[in-house]
From TrEMBL:
Family: Belongs to the nucleobase:cation symporter-2 (NCS2) (TC 2.A.40) family.
The entry's keywords: Cell membrane, Membrane, Transmembrane, Transmembrane helix, Transport
Record-annotated membrane-spanning stretches: 20-41, 47-65, 72-94, 100-120, 127-149, 161-179, 191-216, 236-260, 315-337, 343-363, 375-395, 401-424
Subcellular location: Cell membrane
Name of the molecule in the record: Xanthine permease
PANTHER family: PURINE PERMEASE C1399.01C-RELATED, URIC ACID TRANSPORTER UACT
Membrane topology term: Multi-pass membrane protein
Domain of life assignment: Bacteria
InterPro entries associated with the record: NCS2 (IPR006043), UacT-like (IPR017588), Xan_ur_permease (IPR006042)
GO molecular function: xanthine transmembrane transporter activity
Length: 443
């Protein structure tokens, strides 16, 4: 059944539960970016609290922009948007050198650039045949799995990393999710991730591993303040850097769009990509206006859609609404921070693994694996994506502008797949053209 035929089939409580599951799947990724950037730019606790809250609210608005498809913007797929990790380094560099107002001037300019040139970016679909799409989806899953494993141990930098209690919690959650998928069907299987997180958190609380301080300290209501950090300022180098960040994010989003198109039994055309890019550009503009972040499609939620089998847009609309509420009511948002890192890791290892499975299935069913060139494209792109993830310092001595393309495993692997496909396809097309030309035609 196509996704469009199922867009409003979920009852309200089921819709809310599934939407909350999507929020919990992407929440850690959504809040870690403002925490890193805010700390690096030495924001006050009050400013940092604003940054986290407004980021959640803007994630919700950005998600709704993408899901509410119309003739101008929105791809209409069950996608969740969040702040892009690609922007972390450039935002810190720009803010440290020129001030935080220049960061938001660059974000606004980049968003406007994407909106204006979305049609040009929409033609990128011809560079994403199944061999590229399958490779990109596989890379997405492989580069996310180390994040899940680090969380299972308690998080990077945790002095008790790998402690037996952390492993007990994480593998207990994973075992519960597996058991629910083995013995249940339908709704209970669909919310297995959510129930795993809830049960894991309750067990952790009984073991004294949950701190309720963030909930007690959070306020009940939070006002939105456009240009909270002052009016934006514009500096050409910063703008060009952020445009490059936005372009890189679109490459990653393209892979997610095409992967979801396969999952939802929908052919993604150039016009669909154009509307998706335009919605992403509008989301980036919102990030600049509200002093939040550039936004992109989150690959974390693809695994959840694949695992739950629920592909309806109304669930993602519910997730967007929940994110907006969380952004307006910090005390409610603080509840999600109570989930211990090992509990989150136990759930995400299953979700991210499903992304890898989806990529392998696409490669096996749609790509001629007896073709040596296809194998080389897969080998080099997956190798580069996984390699950069494992050895992230490899390109540290290159210029910052180049590192935007090389510091992220998903981007590096995707770029490799696209370039190699162009190299082999151009050669193949030229050979076919030469073979079809009549003898003596050149004369």
């Amino acid at each position: 059944m196509s996704m469009n035929a199922k867009t409003t089939s979920q009852p309200p409580m089921r819709r809310f539960s599934l939407g909350l599951q999507h929020v919990l799947a992407m929440y850690a990724g959504a809040v870690i970016v403002p925490l890193i950037v805010g700390s690096a730019l030495k924001l006050s606790p009050e400013q940092l609290a604003y940054l986290v809250s407004i980021d959640l609210l803007t994630c919700g608005l950005a998600t709704l922009l993408q899901v509410w498809s119309n003739r101008f913007f929105g791809i209409g797929l069950p996608v969740v948007l969040g702040c892009t990790f690609t922007a972390v380094g450039p935002m810190i560099a720009i803010g440290s050198q020129h001030g935080i107002s220049t960061v938001y001037g660059a974000i606004l300019a980049a968003g406007l650039f994407v909106v204006l040139f979305a049609g040009l970016f929409g033609k990128l679909i011809r560079f994403f045949p199944p061999v590229v799409t399958g490779s990109v989806v596989t890379i997405i899953g492989l580069t996310l799995i180390p994040v899940a494993l680090n969380d299972m141990g308690g998080g990077v930098g945790n002095p008790n990393f790998g402690a037996p209690i952390n492993l007990l919690l994480s593998f207990g959650v994973l075992a519960l999710i597996i058991a629910m998928n083995r013995f249940f069907t339908g709704f209970w299987r669909a919310i297995s991730i959510l129930l795993g997180l809830i049960v894991g958190t309750l067990v952790a609380a009984l073991l004294g591993k949950v701190s309720f301080a963030p909930f007690y300290e959070a306020s009940w209501f939070h006002m939105v303040h456009p240009f909270y950090f002052g009016m934006p300022t514009f500096e050409i180098t910063s703008i060009l850097t952020m445009i490059l960040v936005a372009a890189v994010s679109l490459v990653e989003s393209t892979g997610v769009f095409l992967a979801l198109g396969k999952i939802c039994d929908r052919d993604i055309r150039s016009e669909d990509l154009t509307r998706g890019y335009r919605a992403e550009g509008l989301a980036i503009i919102l990030g600049g206006l509200f002093n939040a972040f550039p936004y992109t499609t989150y690959s974390q939620n693809v695994g959840l859609i694949q695992m739950s089998g629920v592909r309806t847009r109304d669930v993602i609309m519910a997730a967007g609404g929940i994110l907006i509420v969380l952004g307006l009511i910090p005390k409610v948002a603080a509840l999600t921070t109570l989930i211990p890192t090992p509990v989150l890791g136990g759930a995400t290892v299953a979700m991210f693994g499903m992304v890898v499975s989806s990529g392998i299935r696409m490669l096996g069913s749609q790509v001629d694996l007896n073709n040596h060139e296809n194998l080389l494209i897969i080998a080099c792109s997956v190798g580069m994506g996984l390699g950069v993830t494992v050895v992230p310092t490899l390109f540290n001595q290159l210029p910052q502008a180049v590192q935007i393309l090389t510091s992220n495993g998903i981007v590096a692997g995707s770029f490799t797949a696209i370039v190699l496909n162009l190299v082999f396809n151009l050669r193949r097309k030229r050979s076919v053209a030469d073979a079809s030309q009549p003898q003596g035609a050149a004369n």
